[in-house]
Every structure is written in structure tokens, then in C-alpha cells.
Amino acid sequence: MSVPPRFRSVNSDEREFRSVLGPTGNKLQRKPPGMKLEKPMIEKKTIIESKDEETKKPTTPASPRTTLKQCSSLCSSILRKNSASMTASYSSDASSSCESSPLSVASSSSCKKVMRRSGSVSSTRKLSIGKEEDKVAGDCFADGRRRCAWITPKADPCYVAFHDEEWGVPVDDDKKLFELLCLSGALAELSWTDILSRRQLLREVFMDFDPVAVSEMNDKKLTAPGTAAISLLSEVKIRSILDNSRHVRKIIAECGSFKKYMWNFVNNKPTQSQFRYQRQVPVKTSKAEFISKDLVRRGFRSVSPTVIYSFMQAAGLTNDHLIGCFRFQDCCVDAETTTTTTKAKKKNEREGDK
Length: 354
What we know:
Keywords: Metal-binding, Zinc. It holds the Pfam family Adenine_glyco. One of its GO terms (molecular function) is DNA-3-methyladenine glycosylase activity. This is Methyladenine glycosylase family protein. The protein is mainly alpha-helical. It has helices spanning 38-56, 64-100, 108-138, 157-165, 174-185, 192-197, 199-205, 211-215, 219-223, 228-232, 235-255, 258-263, 286-297, 305-315, 327-353, and strands spanning 19-22, 25-28, 271-272, 318-319. Helix 2 (64-100) crosses helix 3 and helix 5 crosses helix 14 (305-315).
């Protein structure tokens, strides 16, 4: 059983009022019956004086309990003042905007909505203008034309001219097809920029890439040290060009032209890739692998599927210009004209045979 607590007997006259920590904070003991109110009045006076001193000197509080109360009261008053000032400023702004606008009869809430909408519209306009500026900055060519992603404003002029005038245009000339096949084979050692810078010298060395004339050239004279051909290409590439010219001559004798042999692989119609991004452009395709196998079977050298696909891109057998490039539509038109001309030629040949 619990034992009741023991209390020390104290005279009622000597008892003082002390603060007691209750559940809702510090409270004073209740006055016992029959006691005078002299001491509590004194304590109230001291409490009022201490409060005045605390308000005068807030940096040196009397006790931590009083500082917490003061901080809470100060924070609440500051928040009330800020909210009042903000509402006043909002109302003044809204009224001024309503008065300045032609719809002065509208309420302040409608004015705020208009202000928010106008702010959102201006922000969207800024974003759209920024996007347009980014697009224009990406296409910073002097002529204002958009080109494929691999053609940059810092690219070599001969490379840009090759892209704008020749790359992707359907070729129906045997000499030009043989030239592009030889130049594509040189990509294993050189870049397009280096090849195009040496193009005129290569034409002089290899008789304008006439397959019949190149097939009659002497290997030893071309591959001798100190010759112009050795300074342009390696000995392996020179020998491959000479060997391929002889096989092209055989194809011309067999099929009538090198053009017919090559364009039969795509049914005399260029392939329209319609790529949007550079990463979509492949390095080789199944069609390139098929052509490479047939050429290797005939004895050609340096005709890997990658080389053949580069040749197909340059000769216009496939249109790999990005759809954002200005040359894409031009090459599509050229492809349609080539298909119509080939169909007309076939029709005339059939009528002549009859």
C-alpha cells in the first residue's frame, strides 16, 4: 500500500507565495482563507517592475521562461505586421492596375488574375524567343541554310561544297561512279577533307578515273618511290585502284555499263532514308553487305560493307541527308527525275527491240 506523503508543519504567518510548475505553466499558489493580501501586492509590483526592466533591456533576460514567452510574442507581432503590409501592398497594386487598365470596373481579384496571366504569357514568350535563338545559333552559316549535323561552320570549304553539290546526288556516269568508289576506298586511310583536298591531283594521276585508261596503266611506274601517286596514297590503295579498274572494265563488257550494274541493286530508285538525327545514320546496311560480297566475288579489293555504304551515300544510291538539311528535298527531286529518265530509256529500248 502507498504511504501518504509527510508534510512539514509551517506557521501560516511565515508561509510565502511561491511559483509552482503546473500543467499549463507557472502559477501562484492560491491564497489560503483568512490571509491578508499585502505580500501578493508586493510581489505583483516586483513582477511589473521586472517586466519593465525586461522590456527596457531585452538582451539580458531575467529567466529563460520569460524569454521564450517574449520571443513568441515578438514573432507573432512581426508576422502580423508583415502580413498587414503585404496585403496593403497587394491591394494598392491591384487598385492601381485596375485604375490604369480600360476595365476599371473589374474587381481586385480579376485584376490579380490578369496580372498573373500576363506574367505567364510574357514568360512563355521569353522561353519561345530563347528557343528560337538557340535554333538560329545552331545554324550559324553565312548563307542561313541548315545542313547536316556533321557539316559545321568550321568545316573545310571543299567539304561543305561536296556536301552541297555532289553528296547524295544520283550519279549515272561510269567515270564518276568509279571515281567515287576509289575515293570511298581511301577513307580507310584518310578523311573526306584530306581526300577532297587531293582530288584534283588524284584525277591527274589516274587519268580522270577512266576505268579503261586506268586498267592499262603500269603498276611499277605508279608505285615507284618518288612518284606523285605514292605521295598521295599508299601502295596498297594504288594497287587496289588498278585492280578494280580492270574488274570494272569486265563489268562494262558484261552488263553494258558500270552504272547499270550498280543501280540494279536498288532497282534504279534511290533509297530515301528520312533520318532526323545524326545518330540514326548507319555505318553499313544489308544492301551494302550484299553489294560488297558480289564485288569481292568478282575480285574487287578495298570494298568492305562500310566502304560500299559510303560509296552509296556519295553516289546517290541512298539519300542520307537529314530531313532538316536543305539538300534533302533537292536530292529527292533528283531521285524522281532519275527514276523517270531510266523508265523512259527502258521503254524506248523495249520499243526499239520490237
